Amino acid sequence: MSLRRVTPFENSAAPAAPPRTTRRRSRAKPRPARARAVILAELKGLGGLVHEQALLDASAPPQMSLVEWSNRLAGELAVEGVGSPATYRDLLWAIVQVNRRGTESDAPTVPVGALQGAA
Fold it and tell me: Which pTM value belongs to this model?
């Protein structure tokens, strides 16, 4: 008795498998928004990294991942991003501006008269 290999085309009695979906459904909860202080701390850390790169070569074009990271953090702070700076020097200056805008929008508004009356 010889054993012969059966190809899938010859075995017509086998049921066809349903097509698998490529999208995986996740049951994970959406992440809550991060605290503003955490985002500002990450932005300052990124500024330190960019500062080191600028010390090595300030006129070099920045890595796109650093620019994207800066823009993402600006988006989380709901302020204008860094855009697409041409050099590390420009990127560092843009990160400083994002930090200033982020801390200004976070500062509580206190009337001037309230400060003068407390003195």
Answer: 0.65
- Structural domain including 46 reads 36-106
Q: What's the longest Cα–Cα distance across the chain? A: 106
Q: Is 54 within the bounds of a domain?
A: yes
Tracing tokens 């930090």 back to the chain, one arrives at 99
For the chain, how many residues are written?
119
How many domains are there within the chain?
Answer: 1
How do residues 4-28 score in pLDDT, each as one tens digit? 666 666 555 556 666 666 776 777 8
94, 85 contact by CB (below 8 A): yes
- Answer yes or no: is 50 within a domain: yes
Query: For the segment 27-52, what is each residue's pLDDT rounded down to a tens digit?
Result: 788 878 889 999 999 999 999 999 99
Side chain identity at residue 22, one-letter code? T
Cβ partners under 8 Å of residue 119, min gap 6? none
